[in-house]
Write a structure and sequence with these properties.
Elements (H helix, E strand, L loop, with lengths): L3 H8 L4 E5 L5 E4 L1 H8 L9 H4 L9 H9 L5 E8 L2 E11 L3 E9 L7 H12 L3 E6 L4 E4 L1 H7 L10 H7 L5 H13 L4 E9 L5 E13 L5 E10 L1 H15 L7 E2 H18 L3 E7 L11 H18 L5 E6 L2 E7 L3 H12 L3 H9 L8 E7 L6 H18 L3 E3 L1
Parallel strand pairs: 11-13, 15-16
Antiparallel strand pairs: 1-2, 1-5, 3-4, 4-5, 6-7, 6-10, 8-9, 9-10, 12-14, 12-15, 13-14
EC number: 2.7.7.65
Organism: Marinomonas algarum
Protein name: Diguanylate cyclase
Length: 407
């Protein structure tokens, strides 16, 4: 009497057979596998070497058996001899102790009803996710309808090869994408993930995340098919950009933060050292008379914002201005002597009548401005030393009721 397992194996809808792990001999095969041979009046071979004859990838059974046992191969794509024909077939292989179960879940030239094949066909036509399948040998890419919808193309316009896909990828991202996929295939990896920009039918670049996974392999472990998804991550990238801007620019004034400004400061100081050019730093106190501290927070913030925007408009393109404290700014003046810096800063902190009216409207009072100036290399040879020196000059000016002080 047959066991329940033997009955289930014999009547399963997918053609399947069992191979002895040590020898490669076919121990058993089910009805649907035998039918493939009955149709051509042939008998299934007795051994793996006689069953699978792939002229491109000749692999002895013992080597393949080890790869199946350690999980390196789950799906094997090879040529199966049926009578006098070699038929491309995909086998789902699973190690079961002393034997291997192989299920023929898909072929190119035969009508099989394997569940995986049905699900794949469904996914390619109906999936709401951006699903694609890539055949590495032919370089054929099959895209789902949802990819065309996602990228705003018709299904006929969806890329069908690596070349067509790369034509849509942003020029700055093509090399990164190509390298990730090339490494995945060359090293027979199981999985990869990469982010890049792709051109949509609206002629706009969209940020996407691509996740790919090996779908089937040859007997030698080489990847035959890769299946993957493309997901729109534009909102995620927009959030990342917003967070980067928050870290780089002060939210209230729009000026550089102290940390972001240091990169620019050090670069300009390096140029001054190499080229023997003058450089000055100015600390600008926006509330030297402590008037803003008595105001409500919202009014104080508006006043600081008004002052910062006014000073930013008065600076040169080469100057660097940053908010380093709640009511203090740091201004770097490249290629500027102390004398020239004094002239420029006097012009900045003494507005015209029209400018003064605008400042007062925003709650800013020009009389509250106090500036301390430090020069390289006299007052310091590093950014921190110059900033400390400029701050000392501000404190001197605040104490002596002076608007501009040179340390």
């Amino acid at each position: 009497m047959s066991t329940p397992f033997e009955l289930a194996f014999d009547y399963m809808p997918t053609p399947a057979f069992i191979i002895e792990s040590g020898t490669g001999n076919l121990l058993s095969y089910n009805r649907n596998f035998k039918i493939l041979y009955d149709k051509v009046d042939a008998t299934p071979p007795s051994n793996w070497s006689l069953l699978c004859e792939d002229p491109l990838h000749t692999e002895d059974w013992s080597t393949l058996d080890r790869k199946i046992q350690n999980g390196a191969i789950e799906r094997c794509e090879t040529l199966v001899r049926i009578g006098d024909k070699l038929v491309p077939m995909q086998l789902n292989v699973q190690h079961l102790g002393h034997c291997v179960l192989a299920c023929a879940y898909n072929t190119d030239n035969m009508d099989l009803s394997a569940a995986d094949n049905t699900l794949l066909k469904f996914a390619l036509t109906e999936s709401s996710a951006g699903l694609w399948v890539w055949e590495t040998d032919s370089d054929l890419i099959s895209c789902s309808k949802s990819i065309a919808t996602l990228l705003h193309y018709s299904l006929d316009q969806a890329p069908r090869s690596t070349l067509e896909w790369h034509r849509l990828v942003h020029p700055d991202d093509v090399t990164k994408l190509a390298n990730v996929v090339r490494e995945h295939v060359s090293l027979s990896q199981d999985y990869y993930e990469v982010e890049y920009r792709i051109l949509t039918g609206l002629q706009e670049y969209m940020w996407v995340k691509e996740r790919g996974r090996s779908y089937s392999k040859g007997p030698d472990g080489s990847i035959k098919k890769v299946i993957g998804f493309v997901v729109d991550i534009s909102h995620q990238k927009a959030l990342e950009e917003h967070l980067r801007n928050q870290a780089t620019f002060d939210e209230l004034t729009g000026l550089l933060t102290r940390g972001a400004a240091m990169t620019h400061f050090k670069k300009q100081l390096g140029l001054a050292k190499r080229q023997y050019t003058p450089l000055t730093m100015a600390k600008i106190h926006l509330d030297a008379n402590n008037r803003l501290n008595t105001l409500p927070m919202e009014t104080r913030n508006i006043a600081i914002q008004t002052s910062a925007r006014y000073l930013y408009k008065k600076m040169r393109e080469s100057d660097v201005l940053a908010r380093v404290e709640a009511d203090k700014l740091l201004l770097l003046l490249p290629n500027t002597s102390v004398r020239d810096a004094q002239k420029r800063l006097k012009h900045m902190v003494n507005p015209t009548e029209a400018e003064r009216a605008m400042l007062l409207l925003g709650g800013s009072e020009p009389a509250d401005f106090c500036v301390g100036i430090a020069a390289f290399p006299e007052d310091g040879e590093t950014i921190d030393e110059l900033a400390l020196s400029a701050n000392q000059a501000v404190e001197t000016g605040q104490a002596n009721d002076q608007q501009i002080v040179v340390n």
